[in-house]
Amino acid sequence: MTKSLDMKIKSPFLNLLLCRVAVVALKLTYKCTRIDIRLGDPVHDPYNSKRDQECVYSVWHDQILYPLFMQTPQHIVAVVGRHRDGDYVSNILKALKLKAIRGSSSRGGTEAVLQALDLVQDHSLVITPDGPRGPRWKMKAGCAFVASQTGIPVVATAFSCSNAWHVQGSWTDLVIPKPFSKVYALTSEPIHIPPKATREELEGYTEQIQAEMDRLAEIAIALAEGREIEDQSQPALKEGKLAA
Q1: In this predicted model, which residue has the larger pLDDT, 172 or 96?
Q2: Which of 7-11, 63-67, 100-104, 168-172 has the weakest average pLDDT?
Q3: Rounded to whole angstroms, how far apart are CA atoms 59 and 74?
Q4: Cα-Cα end-to-end distance for the chain
Q5: Contact yes or no for 57/39 (Cβ under 8 A)
Q6: CA-CA distance, 163 to 179, in Å (whole number)?
Q7: How far is the C-alpha of 32 from the C-alpha of 181, rounded, in Å?
């Protein structure tokens, strides 16, 4: 089921109000789902407030709502593009009392990296590497570049749901689980990128992150569809409860 949200809300106040209403609705929706989180490395648990190692979480644009609402992320900063869809995401982050850095590969990228350098000592970063204009699920060099500049590794992610709505945005959709569905979240082991990596090195690491995102996505989709999968190397470390 696809609905269109490709509309222009020029008033910042109405935009913020709409996002706050959406946050309440999304919180209620996620309370009615079962959550299965499988971490490639428990050290990089985004929901652990006492973790002592930070990273760059690579999250596809259409899956960004999953990690924000499954549980409460701890010490997270999201890098959000300076475009209309980014305005919605930024306001949702504000409503969740999470920090956002505005910038992307096409606008404000250097400024975003400089802000990230000031925050990575006690915050992990969330980057949507297929933004700001797509194509969907196609990795750009942003994750590898930021990781190289900040000295923290990249952790690939994948999310899926047994039954969901797909809300159409300007160039891709947002996936919202339906009540009483089951959500799966997977993360990879950290991918370390050398400091001051060359352009050629960044291209190679970008391909590596893409491959890991694709691998995890295949597993997540299989889990949501109830299919048998060969890669069972990541045990379920957290299990959410189905709300009554």
Answers
A1: 96
A2: 7-11
A3: 16
A4: 25
A5: no
A6: 8
A7: 8
Instruction: Report the SS3 class of residue 89.
Output: helix
CA dihedral 210, 213, 214, 217 (to 10 degrees): -160
Nearest to 216 by CA among 32, 63, 71, 33: 63
CB contact at 8 A, 115 and 101:
yes
**In DSSP terms, which residues pair with 166 in a beta bridge?**
2, 175
Left (φ > 0), alpha (ψ -120 to 50) or beta: where does 202 sit? alpha
**pTM score, whole prediction:** 0.87
Backbone dihedral region for residue 21 (phi beyond 0: left; psi -120 to 50: alpha; all else: beta): alpha
CA angle 206, 56, 97 (to 5 degrees): 140
Q: Which secondary structure element, helix H or strand E, spans residue 164, and what is its range? A: strand 164-168
Question: How far apart, in whole angstroms, are the C-alpha atoms of residue 11 and residue 229?
Answer: 47
Predicted confidence (pLDDT) per residue in 108-145, tens digit: 456 777 788 888 889 999 999 997 777 999 999 989 99
Supply 97's token pair. 């009392």
Instruction: Note whether 2 and 166 are within 8 A (CB).
Output: yes
